[in-house]
């Protein structure tokens, strides 16, 4: 609820009133045109009532003005990644629906947006559809709280998504990715990218975490090799879980970092060279790594009408799979910086499936498997002959 307070500035004739605009988070001030406190308080009471029970005018605000108000209110304090996610949803809504005002977004328009996301050129998974619908619902809930709309439309989310989005990269596939880097990025820049890819493989870092990893600056994400055990120092604003953390580092990654000469341990740990010799933005880095996966023909999943090639996140999955056979779920959760143990447990489901398959294979001697295969072939031949008689 908006609260309006009355005050008199030094040197001013009239009392003024002030309140916080819920659309922007900024302070707003208006003169009461009164020199008497009692009259000024009556003016403030009427204004407060009007602000908390707005007319229909706000519902006719143009979409672009509404977007500006939302960004001014919600972006401060949010990470760059969160802002980009919100901006991507706004852009999709504008491209698919071209809304004149926030009030035109109804249940039918929400369904149309979901269809549009699925029908995009390369195809999108239900995970992508759900992510954008959740973001739009968050935007419209803010619109409802701030009287831009009167009703929240219904959101029919994709059904519960089962199974992994894609599989982890194998060691052999990782080697193939390293081999194609010079062909994709050029010999002169290959070493810096090979260093990054290898670092992602051994560290389990997200690509944005890797790109902010620093040797000496603790303001974001820093390497700490000074203690008994190698650690990561992660500030709250630089981490997905939004918490300051001091977390263990995988020994392989620590050994990888120890191979760097001490005199070179300054600045950012990973500095892949862009087109002009500068360190590129994280989005460009992610797209380039996916190009490596495509060039190496490392396909991690296939949906109708599209193929997904190995990306930076699939290297992170490989890290999780490797360590799930070495440590318990709670330890792996800390190593991968998961916010929920449910996410971590997915790696154990995959690991358990492989172990079960191995036990089944070991339980049956190979000569019996071969004998069964021969029996199956003979049976099939007999059936075919019987049908021809």
Descriptors for this entry?
53% helix, 3-stranded antiparallel sheet, hpI Integrase, Chain A, 4-stranded mixed sheet, alpha+beta, 389 residues
What features would you describe in this structure?
It is elongated, with a radius of gyration of 29 Å. Helix content is 53%, strand content 9%. The protein has 389 residues and is of the alpha+beta class. A hairpin with a 6-residue loop joins strand 5 and strand 6. It has helices at residues 37-52, 63-74, 80-97, 107-118, 126-145, 171-185, 187-203, 207-212, 251-258, 282-295, 312-324, 329-336, 341-363, 366-388; strands at 5-7, 16-20, 27-31, 213-214, 221-224, 231-234, 245-248, 299-303, 306-309. It folds into 3 domains: 5-53; 64-145; 171-351, Intergrase catalytic core (hpI Integrase, Chain A). The protein contains 14 helices and 9 strands.
Write the layout of secondary structure elements.
Elements (H helix, E strand, L loop, with lengths): L4 E3 L8 E5 L6 E5 L5 H16 L10 H12 L5 H18 L9 H12 L7 H20 L25 H15 L1 H17 L3 H6 E2 L6 E4 L6 E4 L10 E4 L2 H8 L23 H14 L3 E5 L2 E4 L2 H13 L4 H8 L4 H23 L2 H23 L1
Parallel strand pairs: 4-5
Antiparallel strand pairs: 1-2, 2-3, 5-6, 6-7, 8-9
Summarize the entry for a quick read.
This protein has helices spanning 37-52, 63-74, 80-97, 107-118, 126-145, 171-185, 187-203, 207-212, 251-258, 282-295, 312-324, 329-336, 341-363, 366-388; strands at residues 5-7, 16-20, 27-31, 213-214, 221-224, 231-234, 245-248, 299-303, 306-309.
How many domain regions? 3
Number of helices: 14
Q: What is the β-strand count?
A: 9
Poorly predicted sequence stretches spanning 5 or more consecutive residues = none
Question: Averaging pLDDT over every residue, what do you get?
Answer: 83
Distance from first to last alpha carbon? 86 Å
What would you give as the CATH superfamily of the largest domain? Answer: Intergrase catalytic core
**Beta-strand content:** 5-15%
- What is the CATH top level name of the largest domain? Mainly Alpha
Query: What is the helical fraction, as a range of percent?
Result: 40-55%
Domain Tyr recombinase: 164-365
GO molecular function, one term: DNA binding
Pfam family, one: Phage_integrase
Family: Belongs to the 'phage' integrase family.
């Amino acid at each position: 609820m908006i609260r309006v307070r009355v005050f008199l500035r030094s040197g001013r004739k009239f009392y003024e009133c002030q309140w916080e605009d819920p659309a922007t988070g900024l302070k707003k001030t208006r003169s009461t045109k009164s020199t008497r406190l009692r009259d000024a308080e009556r003016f403030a009471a009427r204004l407060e009532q009007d602000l908390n029970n707005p007319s229909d005018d706000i519902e006719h605000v143009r979409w672009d003005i509404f977007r500006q108000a939302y960004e001014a209110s919600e972006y401060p304090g949010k990470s760059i990644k969160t802002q980009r996610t919100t901006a991507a949803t706004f852009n999709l809504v504008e491209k698919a629906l071209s809304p004149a005002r926030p009030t035109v977004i109804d249940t039918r328009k929400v369904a149309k947006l979901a269809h549009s996301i699925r029908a995009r050129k390369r195809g999108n998974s239900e995970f992508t559809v759900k992510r954008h619908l959740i973001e739009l619902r968050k935007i419209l809930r803010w619109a409802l709280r701030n009287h831009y709309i009167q009703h929240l439309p219904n959101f029919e989310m994709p059904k519960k998504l089962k199974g992994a989005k894609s599989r982890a990269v194998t060691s052999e596939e990782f080697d193939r990715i390293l081999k194609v880097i010079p062909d994709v990025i050029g010999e002169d820049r290959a070493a810096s990218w090979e260093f990054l890819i290898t670092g992602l493989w051994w560290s389990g870092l997200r690509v944005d975490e890797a790109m902010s990893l620093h040797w000496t600056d603790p303001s974001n994400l820093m390497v700490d090799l000074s203690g008994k055990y190698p650690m990561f120092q992660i500030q709250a604003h630089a981490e997905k879980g939004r918490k300051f953390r001091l977390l263990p580092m995988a020994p392989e990654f620590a050994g990888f970092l120890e191979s760097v000469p001490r005199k070179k341990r300054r600045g950012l740990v990973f500095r892949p060279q862009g087109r002009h010799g500068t360190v590129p933005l994280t989005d460009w880095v992610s797209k380039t790594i996916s190009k490596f996966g495509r060039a190496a023909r490392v396909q991690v999943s296939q949906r109708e009408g599209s193929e997904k090639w190995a990306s930076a996140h699939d290297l992170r999955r490989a890290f999780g799979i490797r360590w799930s056979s070495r440590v318990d779920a709670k330890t792996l959760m800390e190593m991968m910086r998961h916010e929920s143990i449910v996410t971590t447990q997915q790696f154990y489901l995959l690991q358990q499936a492989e172990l079960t398959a191995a036990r089944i294979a070991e339980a049956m001697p190979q000569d019996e498997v071969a004998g069964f295969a021969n029996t199956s072939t003979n049976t099939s031949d007999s059936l075919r002959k019987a049908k021809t008689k």
